[in-house]
Design goal:
Length: 419
Amino acid sequence: MIEAAKGTRDILPGEVARWQLVEQQARDIFTLFGFREIRTPIFESTELFTRGVGEATDIVAKEMYTFLDRKGRSLTLRPENTAPVARALIEHGLLRGAEMHRLYYIGPMFRYERPQKGRMRQFAQIGVEVVGSDHPAVDAETLQMLMLFLGRLRLGALELQVNSVGCSVCRPVYRDILVAALRPHRDALCTDCRRRLETNPLRCLDCKVPADRAIVDGAPPILEHLCADCAAHFARVRGHLDGLGVAHTVAPRLVRGLDYYRRTTFEVVSTSLGAQSALLGGGRYDGLIEELGGPPAPGFGFAMGEDRLVMSLPGDLPGLEQASGVFIVVLGDEAVAAGLLAAARLREAGRAAVVEPAPQKSLKAQMRRANDLKARFVLILGADEIARGTLTVKRMADGAQQEVAAASLVQALTELDHG
Ligand code: HAM
């Protein structure tokens, strides 16, 4: 048997309603805030990610699906979508004016990671990018939108954690301070952190190895070493968050795994997710677009793994299990044609209808099928009904049943909807 490749999975019809609900909620709320959708290709030139995300990051160093095409060009399945969105804005000349761009995307990303609960090699992200303003109100309002979205999904206890990782002025200074603080403990650090100490020392700050945590907790926090501009920016982001009533905590060791972040970084942590507790993350990336050859254009955004959102949804979320369609039970071959006609009439009136031409199946078996499909109404067509030109209508919610003339079927269902 050929199985789905490791780290990928099928989303079967039984679970897809949860995905659609999350996506619809995202579209609705993002639209309320003036965001518009952007769709970029699934693969890009490898260089976009090596330059955009950074050579020293885990993503670029060990997680990319990179291949040569038939002409020898190096291409990569996108591991994230901030760099592709930046590329698209530059390529289409959309950054020449001073206007802001508020964009969102929903789609698959690819990372060669060790699969576990909530971590896949192909996973869907829902993300947003705001490009064209470095005003702290942009950070705060985007986070307000995010928390509104998560609140609608009733995901339980969530914590918004914010930090600032400084800019090209203060970060190098802090980097030296951090390296000086950690170097004496080098031999006690994990292998990853020993490597990071040389290549990307800030990443030591969010190492999850307990022994490393103890060492790193003793190092000076970045918030004490921000330059005046970055400190003021962070204070104003927090001020706007407070003004909008968005609860948050400061997480001084929150640095993220991508090189492009400047100033604000954040994560939303769920207490119900266990090891994969970060539901999503994001931050400000004011240098990225210039790094990719565009004009100076600051940006802020986030992305969330859709698997993790769907996993955390409560089972009884309103809108999830709404029975809507009509299932038509046909008993005997002569009922099939009448069933098809009834289905056609219902669909014309905008109602979903299904007839499964299996007339040899018993009433009981067909009723079971209607239940599985979560039909709101079942129509029964047997020899008696055909002879009388009627159908038996059953409302599944309460079992109410009546016989109606085939010609007045649509009207009868409308009455039963409200009855
Ligand atoms: P990221 O932290 O690499 O950031 O990924 C964002 C989110 O994607 C994670 O918090 C997680 O929910 C989900 N995710 C990442 N890897 C996996 C995986 N292997 N399986 C399932 N879910 C995963 C970014 O991607 C940035 N582009 C976010 C951003 C947008 N920053 C600014 N704008």
